[in-house]
Amino acid sequence: MSVYQKDRSLIAVIGDEDTVTGLLLAGIGHVDSKQKANFLVVDSKTTLPTIEESFIEFTRRKDIGIILINQHVADDIRSMLDEYHQAFPTVLEIPSKDHPYDPAKDSILKRVQKLFGDDQR
């Protein structure tokens, strides 16, 4: 395992309260020495710039290997996700309790389908 991979030991999450709470209870929560958390709870009062800033911050952090984002939240920043092409941290869209997963919207799945010539959408 390279030093680069070893340093990326955290999972970040951007999602609704139920999703974030569940993942925090599972043990992914972390607050670093600069009081920066690896999670963002998105509700009706969360502004779009706040979501965008958190996504940018999480993608720039060297300790995060995976970013989980509720698909309905990802829809709000879809253009940013479509432009994001880095391997690390990997961004995965996940369903939430109130919003089912739609594979037709998933940026990574679209990229994989295009790569394998199965882009029929």
UniProtKB/TrEMBL annotation:
Keywords: Hydrogen ion transport, Ion transport, Membrane, Transport, Vacuole. It is a peripheral membrane protein. Transmembrane segments: none annotated. The keyword Membrane applies. It is found in: Vacuole membrane. The keyword Cell membrane does not apply. GO terms for molecular function: proton-transporting ATPase activity, rotational mechanism. GO terms for cellular component: fungal-type vacuole membrane; proton-transporting V-type ATPase, V1 domain. InterPro entries: ATPase_V1-cplx_f_g_su (IPR008218), ATPase_V1-cplx_fsu_euk (IPR005772), ATPase_V1_fsu_sf (IPR036906). It comes from the Eukaryota. Subunit of the V1 complex of vacuolar(H+)-ATPase (V-ATPase), a multisubunit enzyme composed of a peripheral complex (V1) that hydrolyzes ATP and a membrane integral complex (V0) that translocates protons. V-ATPase is responsible for acidifying and maintaining the pH of intracellular compartments. Belongs to the V-ATPase F subunit family. V-ATPase is a heteromultimeric enzyme composed of a peripheral catalytic V1 complex (components A to H) attached to an integral membrane V0 proton pore complex (components: a, c, c', c'', d, e, f and VOA1). V-ATPase is a heteromultimeric enzyme made up of two complexes: the ATP-hydrolytic V1 complex and the proton translocation V0 complex. This is V-type proton ATPase subunit F.
